[in-house]
Every structure is written in structure tokens, then in C-alpha cells.
Amino acid sequence: MFIPKEPLTKENIFKKISSYDIFRTYSNNFVELNKPFCSDLRQDNNPSCSISFIKGDLLYTDFGEGSYRAIDFVMRLYNLSYPEALSKINTDFNLGLGGTVITNKQYNYT
Q1: CA 72, CA 87: separation in Å to the nearest integer?
Q2: Which of 32, 60, 77, 99 stands 20 to 30 A from 26 (CA)?
Q3: What is the CA radius of gyration of the chain?
Q4: Which residues of 63-84 are buried (b: 16+ CB within 10 A; e: fewer)?
């Protein structure tokens, strides 16, 4: 019997793992919520970054650069597009989601 894979979407990723899991995996300097640490995104010798629970989800705030939700952080950290970031998370966490990225965006290739 063939059981189709769930599509590779942000929603399906977050059914299997949390934002916390993503930050713990990809942020080498992150120790605990609300505790300042050195940024993963730039050379930094001072704790100028933190991860906090804001508006229902975790937010990576680099006080010298900006703020990122989990998938945006992976995009920025590895210089990936949105579909590439979803694919990286899917592969790195061995989630087994389908290979096709489904987004709400419509692309015009003309």
C-alpha cells in the first residue's frame, strides 16, 4: 500500500518540530530563552542577541541586525531561499516530508 508523503510546508514542519528545536539546532550560541548571547549571524564578542517568546512564537533578535522567526533565521544563517530553508530543515531533522514545497505564492515566469 502506498502512503503519500505529507507535502513540505511550514505548517507540516511545525506539526513535527517546534521553533525551539530549530533554534537549538542551528544557533550554536543559544543557551536559554531570554538570556543574551553572541550573535550567530555576525562577528560579535558581546552578548547582543536573544531568543524570546513573542506573539505566540519564538523570535531571534539580533540587536545589531534585526529579528527573525525560525525559518527566516535558517534562511538568513545559510543564505537560502524559503523553499531551500524548508528543504534543509526537512532533511536535517529527517522529517520525511514530500519533496515539493507548497506555498501560497504564485510565481510568474514570463
Answers
A1: 13
A2: 99
A3: 15
A4: eeeeebbbbebbbbbeebeeee
Cα dihedral angle (15, 17, 19, 24), rounded to 10 degrees? 180
pLDDT tier at 107 (50, 70, 90 boundaries)?
A: very low
Q: Is 104 exposed, middle or buried (0-12, 13-18, 19+ CB in 10 A)?
A: exposed
Q: Residue 106: pLDDT above 60? A: no
pLDDT score recorded for residue 100: 53
Q: What pTM, to 2 d.p., does this model score?
A: 0.85
The pLDDT assigned to 102 comes to 53
The Cα–Cα gap between 39 and 29 comes to: 7
Look-up of cell digits 507540516 = 12
CB atoms within 10 A of CB 93: 15
Residue ranges with strand state E in the chain:
49-54, 57-62, 66-68
* Distance between CA atoms of residues 35 and 26, nearest Å: 17
Contact 58, 23 (CB under 8 A): yes
